[in-house]
Amino acid sequence: MPTRAFVSPWSLSRWLDRSSLLLFFAAWELAPRAGGLLETFIAPPSVVLMTLWELLLSGELCDHVTISLGRAIAGFTGAALIALPLGFLLGGNFRTFERIVTPVLRFLGQVNPFSLFPLFIILFGISELSKEAMIFWVCIWPILFNTITGVKGIDPLLVKSARSMGTGVVPLFFKVILPAASPGIFTGLKMGAGTAFFMLIAAEMIGASCGLGWLVWNAQINFQIPKLFAATVVISVLGMILNMLLVTLERRLLGWLDSSPNH
Amino acid sequence: MAGVVDVPQQIQTDAKIVVKAITSVFHLKKTRTEPAREFIALKEINLEVKKGEFLVLVGPSGCGKSTLLDILTGLAQPTSGAVYIDGNKVTGPALDRGIVLQGYALFPWRTVRQNVEFGLEIKKVPKRERRAISDNFIHLVGLDGFADRFPHELSGGMKQRVAIARALAYDPEVLLMDEPFAAVDAQTRESLQDELLRIWEATGKTILFVTHSIEEAVFLGDRVAVLTPNPGTLREIVKIDLPRPRHNSDTRSSAEFGWIRRKIWELLQNAPHESRHHLNAVPVAEAISPTASL
Ligand SMILES: Nc1ncnc2c1ncn2[C@@H]1O[C@H](COP(=O)(O)OP(=O)(O)OP(=O)(O)O)[C@@H](O)[C@H]1O
Ligand SMILES: [Mg+2]
User: Fold this and answer.
1) Which residue ranges of chain B lie beneath pLDDT 70?
2) Cα dist from B124 to A40, A237, B128, B130, B137, whole Å
3) Does the CB of A179 have a partner CB in chain B at under 8 Å?
4) Whose C-alpha in A84, A118, A195, B246 is 20 to 30 A from the C-alpha of A146?
5) Segments forming the whole domain that contains residue B196
6) How many domains is chain B built from?
């Protein structure tokens, strides 16, 4: 996931970004008007906006977005709740055990979620749980591995320094271990959130009866090109918002990190 | 563990710190080239530090200076022997001893002020008081205006000042410092030395200061304890009779300064020659601590 350096909203480069986006929309609007094949396969932004507006008015859009986000949040939260404590235990207290189980975990982490999805459907049916299980599966590995790496990478000198001041176990965890491991943890959470959203759409396209992914898939089989474009735009915008939130959060939480290039 | 049972919990003494027959043995694990064996890092170290005294430990890399300091802090247990502060045996870390570790060890997610206040938070000092205290110590080490900076925004010398302020802030009676000025340039080093003396004179702390530099040892200390390696033993304690205050004066260029420096240098050079043979048994890579800052 790209981490963007902070750019002031009024800087020249921002305007360049925007102008490129404007150009893109203009080309998109004009291209289908050229007629021919493009007209059949590409819905111009004006039409897409109209469709979006209709979807919004009918309440359909809101339902799909809520359902999709609900699934993503449920799977992600479940994964974080298990992966974070497990990561702290494996990276901190049980190093030897961690060495033993890492190959297994790495293998599991490599298992392609799509090949597991049929299994989840057999287990949980086309219910919410099968989608949530999929999100859970793709989120748990990056969070777990990055937490382990983060905890293992804590400078022992910092722990030593805190302990020399008579810091007890609980303050040591909250005042030293947790913040020291937070860059790793955050990387994991960020990767998890990114993949979660990505996978969710895919999962919904394969086996769901509602949600944004289903909306795309449904529009496709019914050849509702404007609707397909509308759903895609919503997904992109949601993805961008998610990314922006994460970047903002990162800046808030990890502003203390040395971001100079020589580090 | 041997030795833990037979040392008294309390002793009668006027000294602030008493190091009594400390021996520290590391059990080295088997390596590809070598069987498991024991390594004597410190052997029978005896030392007394008076209240308000500035004692400096010098010795080559790997002679056990940091190990001794860890034991004094209570972070490590000696294999035998004991350390007493005010006659009470040290059993673990406590806020009566402040430590400045080798390397700055500042918390990178805390600002200068928050770093300085760490020990106070542990001590559960209320927020308003904490702020007054940290203001005071940030001023003392000359970092006014930098209170809200993060460590990565500071120079090496400034980080070192923060580490000192952090150790001073919770008002320990004893300050243990492990090569605090090793990572800064010569000029900054001298000004930090001056500053430390000024702080020491102002606060009356008992300081135990570890260094590689003979010059630094002579400039700072009331006495200099010379350690020799393999195994780490206390070779001699040299009294430094240079007049005080020594900062802002030409102490460093005086003849007496040179003479004492020479004496300590010779003590370090004429380390008992058997130790060379010891070195054959001990791989050099292991005899030198991984944190060596030569
Ligand atoms: N945890 C450990 N396990 C095994 N050996 C150790 C351990 N810690 C230190 N040693 C050994 O003990 C000896 C003394 O180490 P110590 O760090 O106290 O040296 P030092 O005098 O502080 O050196 P320097 O000036 O380089 O900091 C070294 O030979 C080192 O290899
Ligand atoms: Mg050392």
Assistant:
1) 1-6, 248, 271-294
2) 71, 47, 12, 9, 18
3) yes
4) A118
5) 50-78+87-272
6) 1
Nearest CA in chain A to B168: A165
A135 occurs within a structural domain: yes
- What does the pLDDT look like over A29-67, one tens digit per residue? 888 777 767 777 888 888 889 999 998 899 888 999 999
Minimal CA separation from B93 to chain A, in Å: 5
Question: What CATH number should be reported for the domain holding residue A183?
Answer: 1.10.3720.10
Domain that holds residue A116: 66-208
- Report the nearest-CA residue for atom 24 of ligand 1: B61
DSSP calls for B182-242: TTS-HHHHHHHHHHHHHHHHHH--EEEEEES-HHHHHHH-SEEEEEETTTBEEEEEEE---
How buried is A247 (Cβ within 10 angstroms: 0-12 exposed, 13-18 middle, 19+ buried)?
A: middle
Whether residue A180 lies within 8 A of chain B, CB to CB, comes out as: yes
Whether A103 maps to a domain, the answer reads: yes
Least Cα distance to B12 among B65, B54, B48, B53 occurs for B48
In a domain, A252, yes or no: no
Q: What is the CATH number of the domain that holds B253?
A: 3.40.50.300
Residue in A161, A167, A262 to test binding to B, most B beta-carbons within 10 Å: A161
Looking at CA atoms only, how far is residue B176 from chain A in angstroms?
A: 11
Burial (CB count within 10 angstroms: exposed 0-12, middle 13-18, buried 19+), residue B250: exposed
Q: Which atom of ligand 1 is nearest to the CA of B64?
A: 18
In a domain, B244, yes or no: yes
Of B110, B111, B170, the CB nearest to A165: B170
